[in-house]
Design goal:
Number of helices: 21
CATH topology of the largest domain: Four Helix Bundle (Hemerythrin (Met), subunit A)
Number of domains: 3
CATH superfamily of the largest domain: nmb1532 protein domain like
Order of helices and strands: HHHHHHHHHHHHHHHHHHHEEHEEHEEE
Length: 497
């Protein structure tokens, strides 16, 4: 076998297996060749010209070394062909091969291989990459068992490897009023707030000067409050966009990004608590980290998440996303009008005539202890001073109540969503523990109480079983006990004013 610059490394190693150890001896950057999966993917398309570049070796010297070793071990002449491949040789265009190559690059990263080497490998083997391909690659790795926390840990590094390829692509330009247009409008608003905050922190100094912190405390407090509205942006992503992606079996964003959202929320909360305690260092350090994390998230949103979402979701699905947005709200901005133009506002319901009401009552549903119409049941549930969420026996959200003041945001997009995807990744193990205990019959209730935004929240979970004892679902009941906890003594009289 004659070897040349265009010879594939996999073909060479099949013919001369002993070269595997020889190559590792030439450069530690070739250790990946011992990975059978990498050999089957990248090895099939990587030419010796590309391999020499990865190892930082002169091509002519590299080929001469190989032929000399082959001659020494086999006494065969494998004189190299002097021709060199054109600049595009070895680039991967096949979608499946490209996905495999991307995965192997990231697997090598997680195994501890040098990022600079991997960036070079990426540049040499991948002729352009789409945001959707990166998103699908990370999803595939998670499907194969790579933990979401591990993806999250190295998420920034992943982006760094693909950054050049991503920046060659234009950011999406959705029509005004489209959910992605609103998300991006919020990003521009957050960037303005972060810019103002960074300038203010510069004036305070690092380490912070106490007198400068005091002089700028009012402005800093205002900016902290404004920046904390990012929670609304993330909540809308979690409850409107993520469920639609999950319906396409694309769960990576909700598992990885949600976890990062929570880190940002925690950092801003820490900064606000330190600010309330007049602690300059305790305020500025987590605030600086949160700002960097938000900027990184904006990059991931606009270069990976949003392009992938636009490619994946249909117009009817985007309409569903838009229809539930107002239930959660918006951060800093008012959504533009214009998309979709064909949404027809449903006419307001006309109250039924008295005769119709009587007829409806006469045909009410027979319950264990009375009869109620569907309208009455719905009204009753929405007037209870608690939030209700019912999860059926398949672990999917079947219902939530809409009271005048919800404790936790909900929108129609969660109906039919797997309950595990409705919670932050750090809480999923608790959800699994509760559901497993309910289904096994070992537990019937679970309860928690937390302080959230100055409120004392009591959360209870109840196993719902039928008359025969079979598990039919889980009922979540959340209640704000802040004012109730303040009650003392008795009140036997009506105290209306």
């Amino acid at each position: 076998m004659e070897i040349s610059a265009s010879t594939k490394i996999d073909e060479l190693l099949k013919e001369y297996p002993f070269l595997e150890d020889f190559l590792v001896g030439l450069s530690p950057k070739f250790k990946g060749l011992k990975n059978p999966i990498m050999r089957k993917t990248i090895g099939k398309v990587a030419t010796l010209s590309k391999v020499a570049g990865i190892g930082g070796l002169d091509l002519e010297d590299f080929l001469a070394s190989l032929t000399a070793e082959i001659k020494r071990q086999t006494d065969k002449d494998a004189t190299p062909d002097e021709s060199t491949p054109d600049g595009d040789a070895g680039a991967i265009s096949d979608p499946e091969e490209k996905q495999a190559a991307l995965k192997e690059i990231i697997k090598a990263l997680h195994a501890g291989e040098d990022m600079a080497v991997l960036k070079q490998r990426f540049g040499q083997l991948i002729d352009g990459v789409e945001a959707t391909e990166i998103a699908k690659m990370e999803q595939a790795l998670m499907d194969e068992g790579l933990p979401a926390e591990e993806i999250k840990r190295l998420c920034d590094v992943h982006v760094e490897i693909f950054k050049e390829a991503l920046e060659e692509k234009d950011r999406p330009e959705p029509p005004m009023g489209h959910p992605i247009h609103t998300f991006m409008k919020e990003n521009r608003a957050s960037e303005q707030i972060m810019s103002e905050t960074s300038m203010l922190m510069g004036r305070i100094g690092h380490p912070p000067r106490p007198e400068a912190f005091q002089e700028n405390s009012q402005a800093l407090g205002s900016l902290l409050d404004r920046l904390s509205e990012i929670d609304i942006h993330y909540t809308r992503k979690e409850n409107q966009l993520f469920p639609m992606l999950e319906a396409h079996h694309f769960t990576g964003p909700s598992q990885v990004m949600w976890s990062i959202h929570d880190d940002i929320r925690a950092g801003l909360k820490q900064a606000r608590q330190a600010f309330a305690n007049a602690d300059p260092e305790g305020t500025l350090t987590p605030l600086k980290e949160a700002i960097q994390a938000i900027r990184d998230m904006i990059y991931k949103e606009e270069h990976i998440l949003y392009p992938a979402s636009l490619d994946m979701l249909t117009d009817p699905e985007w309409i569903k996303v838009k229809e539930g947005e107002a239930d959660i709200g918006f951060a800093w901005v008012v959504p533009d009008t214009g998309w979709p133009e064909d949404i027809v506002k449903e006419p307001e319901e006309v109250p039924p005539e008295p005769a119709a009401v009587l007829e409806e009552v006469a045909g009410a549903l027979g319950l264990d202890t009375g009869r109620l119409t569907l309208e009455q049941i719905n009204l009753m549930l929405t007037h209870l001073p608690v939030d209700l969420t019912f999860v059926d026996e398949t672990d999917r959200v079947a219902y939530y109540s809409e009271g005048p003041e919800r404790i936790f945001p909900r929108s129609p997009a969660i109906i039919g969503r797997e309950i595990r995807n409705c919670h932050p990744p750090k809480s999923v193990h608790l959800v699994n523990q509760i559901l497993d205990a309910f289904k096994s019959g070992s537990r019937d209730t679970a309860e928690f109480w937390i302080e959230l935004g100055g409120k004392f929240i009591y959360i209870r979970y109840f196993a719902v079983r039928d008359a025969d004892g079979y598990y039919r679902g889980c009922l979540e009941v959340s209640q704000n006990l802040t004012e109730i906890r303040k009650l003392e003594g008795q009140n036997r009289l009506l105290d209306w004013e």
